[in-house]
Design brief:
The protein is mainly alpha-helical. It is built from 6 helices and 2 strands. The chain has helices spanning 3-24, 27-47, 56-65, 74-83, 89-95, 100-113, and strands at residues 52-55, 118-121. The chain has a two-stranded parallel ribbon with strand order 1-2. α1 (3-24) runs antiparallel to α2. The relative contact order is 0.12. The mean pLDDT is 86.
């Protein structure tokens, strides 16, 4: 069973429990409904948390080094900094490791959009 099918099944269970509780009015049925609903809400909260992380010291370096000009965004300044090799050695080393270039791009895009696409963590 796919994840989508599992999710649909869980939503159906909550709907059926709601209908049953509404029909019977029994407090046990309402408790069952709220328990199912709360489990589903918790799963949605977890699914909506950022999965990507960036160290706090790297985020701080990005904020310090990427002072965009009037028409540039931080993301554009980052790309130009990579292309012209003008970022600090420590930042360049981080960027060139694994998928960090993409994580930083997502982080800067999230900042521009006002959403947390990448979580800043200690270390």
């Amino acid at each position: 069973m796919s994840e989508l099918e599992k999710a649909k099944q869980e939503v159906e269970q909550v709907c059926f429990a709601y209908d049953k509780a509404g029909d019977t009015g029994d407090i046990k049925d309402w408790k069952e409904y709220y328990d199912l609903e709360n489990k589903l809400i918790d799963k949605v909260k977890i699914a909506n948390h950022p999965q990507l992380t960036i160290p706090k010291n790297i985020a701080e370096m990005l904020d310090e080094e990427l002072n965009p000009l009037e028409r540039e965004s931080m993301l554009e300044t980052f790309v130009l900094g990579i292309n012209y090799l003008v970022l600090s050695d420590e930042l360049m080393k981080f960027v060139l490791t694994g998928n960090n270039y993409h994580v930083i791009s997502a982080y800067l895009a999230g900042k521009a959009l006002g959403v947390d696409l990448v979580k800043v963590v200690e270390g």
